[in-house]
Amino acid sequence: MTAQTSRAANDLIAPNDLDAWWLPFTANRSFKQRPLMIARAKGMYYYTPDGREVIDGAAGLWCCNAGHNRDEITQAIQAQAQELDYSPAFQFGHAGGFALASRLAQLAPGDLNHVFFCNSGSEAVDTALKVALAYWNVKGQGSKTRLIGRERGYHGVGFGGISVGGIVKNRQFFGSLLAGVDHLPHTYNRAEQAFSRGEPEWGAHLADELERIVALHDASTIAAVIVEPMAGSTGVLPPPKGYLKRLREICDKHGILLIFDEVISGFGRLGTAFAAERYGVVPDMITFAKGVNSGTVPMGGVLVREDLYDTFMNGPKSLS
Ligand SMILES: Cc1ncc(COP(=O)(O)O)c(C=O)c1O
């Protein structure tokens, strides 16, 4: 679409059309009185319908990591859509999917060598939580069903993600959400951390709260802990120094899976492929989406370690 045609399309919103789209996380009534429209994008800029250039400081929503409308990417999407637009997601495969899974496994640290694909970050989170529950079930430890999130955490808009998430406004309308969920305290403390560069010195001890949660519920009932290694939606909060290592140690001690939600920290946003690499901690699963294709196509997935994958591959015959 040229700049000319897209400008025309955006200038002509019929009043009925304006009401037809109910936007997420948006003050819809004020939006509809004064719609904020974007007509096109290129590189690090958006362009408004009247042609103003707007710098995209947030890279979309932390997802256009390679810049907007890269020719290589749009050409690859076009070529794929022309060759194979869709094939059943069950029982059939495509070489491109396997090749991508291998490349992701190479990017990921440790033995996070297997990928389960899905369509968004929210789905990736709910998938990881379900993999955790199913893993313990297949291992004969079906009592391990509790999921532990963190206050101020954001894990998308599925019921699982909202349940382990800790953003009050995102939870308050949806009743009791998933049962059996508990939350670690958030890691932000302005008095102790003000003016920190990068990871704050103060706060590693907050990971020890997991010991308190284990003491309360018993490890035999806890399946997994999920955190954003670097929080984004609550305000950008790097983890306190040593915090993630401590979480890993406590999870190992009690046989609890550790999930890093890397939907916004993956694919180079912290200078490494994943935050796990930057902070030197290998979780049992990494959720990803967004930057995997620079935000151009809805896509997400979960990277899992060898032990999890093997458990399902060698598990009961009904799974084969
Ligand atoms: C950490 C985290 N997890 C999950 C999600 C949900 O991803 P999506 O919007 O693709 O469903 C987001 C979205 O920003 C996120 O920041």
Account of the 3D structure:
This protein is of the alpha/beta class and 320 residues long. The chain has two domains: 55 residues, no CATH class; 230 residues, Type I PLP-dependent aspartate aminotransferase-like (Major domain) (Aspartate Aminotransferase, domain 2, 3-Layer(aba) Sandwich). Helices cover 37% and strands 14% of the residues. The protein has a seven-stranded mixed β-sheet with strand order 4-10-9-8-7-5-6, sandwiched between helices. The protein has a three-stranded antiparallel β-sheet with strand order 1-2-3, with helices on one face. Strand 1 and strand 2 form a beta hairpin. The longest helix is centred in the middle third of the chain and has 18 residues. The N terminus is likely disordered. Pyridoxal-5'-phosphate binds next to helix 7.
Quaternary organization = single chain
Strand order of the largest sheet: 4-10-9-8-7-5-6
What is the CATH class name of the largest domain? Answer: Alpha Beta
Shape call: globular
How much helix is in the residues? 25-40%
Bound molecules: pyridoxal-5'-phosphate
Question: Can you count the beta strands?
Answer: 10
How would a textbook summarize the main sheet?
7 strands, mixed
